[in-house]
Amino acid sequence: MQKRSANANKGMGASKKARASTKPADTKGAPEKETQDTEGGHTEEVETFNVFTHDMDTLECDICTLPFDSQIYTCKNGHAACGNCCISMNRRCSFCTETIGDIRCRAMEKILAGMTRPCKYSKYGCTKVVKFMETRKHEEETCPYVPYSCPFNGCTYNGVQLYDHILDDHEQDGQATNVEASYYMGTLFGTRVTLQKGAPFHALLHHDGKTVFMLLNGGDVLKGRSLSIVRMCPRPGPDEEAAEKVEYEMVVRGDQPGSLSLKAPGMRLLRRLEGYLPERFLFVPDAFWGSSGRVTVAVYI
Ligand SMILES: [Zn+2]
Ligand SMILES: [Zn+2]
Ligand SMILES: [Zn+2]
Ligand SMILES: [Zn+2]
Q1: 276 vs 138: CA distance, rounded Å
Q2: 270 and 224 share a domain?
Q3: 162: which of 45, 148, 208, 213 fits an S-S bond (Cβ 3.0–4.6 Å)?
Q4: Cα(138) to centroid(ligand 4), Å
Q5: Cα 287 to middle of ligand 3, angstroms
């Protein structure tokens, strides 16, 4: 079985010279004549197949546009979809409304099982060559090089240097604050952040020059707001469980006398903020925000 997969891969990958092309796929899979300089100084004509190209459309689910993973289904007219999409379409092909979800497309599954491809985030530094059927999981869930979409409303930044970007583009607007070391000469002190009630979050830039925390100000609770802190970058590495144990503390003061505080034993690592609801948060009631509509949060990380 191992051997057959290896052969399939070779056959799909290249003829004469095995090489993974990164050229645009204007000649999808077709042999291509190309001249190459050889050591002897003369040129040699070689024939290559462009299989590993940027244009992988034909190997992706037509519905969700993600690379096929373990199972590929077809309707009786040959339209293909991944397992998740069969369920989300209620097992009705969205192209022809025939039933879909019973017939597996095993020939294509076999071909893809023998293929590998470089991670699509190679331009951001990922050097992984992943089994094709595992690219969805890698690129959607585990790749540490997925670019960030800046979470600030209206910002179009998409890249891996989120820390530098927030520092350059959002710190002056008061949407981000540099977090100083919480201990100085043995004394614990917090970084003070002024938080507007309507702001969904405030970025906290760690003094290590690479870590971005987000002070989340959730509107998902009645008669108040939910405050919590998550880490956005750096991305989780292989030993990242330890990072989830980063403790933090916050003390909130408003117009009223007194304060509210939370000591949390761990911090979640998030790739994106959308849809996230914290399990543990500090409830800050509407009255606490007062007429100014803002509070001061002292953060200890
Ligand atoms: Zn799909
Ligand atoms: Zn169909
Ligand atoms: Zn990757
Ligand atoms: Zn931005």
Answers
A1: 21
A2: yes
A3: 148
A4: 25
A5: 47
* 152 assigned to some structural domain: no
Ligand 3 mean position to 66 CA, how many Å?
A: 15
Quote the ligand 2 centre to 70 CA distance (angstroms).
20
Sort 154 into a burial class: Cβ within 10 Å, 0-12 / 13-18 / 19+: exposed
Number of domains in the chain: 3
How far apart (Å, rounded) are the C-alpha atoms in residues 132 and 67?
A: 8
Judge residue 181's burial from the number of C-beta atoms within 10 Å of its C-beta, 0-12 exposed, 13-18 middle, 19 or more buried: exposed
Q: For position 110, which CATH number holds?
A: 3.30.40.10
- What spacing in Å lies between the alpha carbon of 63 and ligand 2's midpoint? 11
Q: Which residue is listed with tokens 């990958």?
A: 13
Q: What is the pLDDT of residues 231-253, one digit of tens each?
A: 988 876 655 555 566 788 999 99
168 alpha carbon, closest ligand: 4
Domain carrying residue 215: 170-300
Specify whether 16 is located in the same domain as 34: yes
* Ligand number with the minimum distance to the CA of 126: 3
Q: Which two tokens stand for residue 260?
A: 């509210």
List, for residues 142-200, the tens digit of each pLDDT value. Answer: 888 888 889 999 999 988 899 999 999 999 888 899 887 666 556 666 789 999 999 99
Residue 157, in any domain of the structure:
no
Distance 120 CA to ligand 3 centre (A): 7
Residue 265 has pLDDT above 90, yes or no: no
Whether residue 162 lies inside any domain: the answer is: no
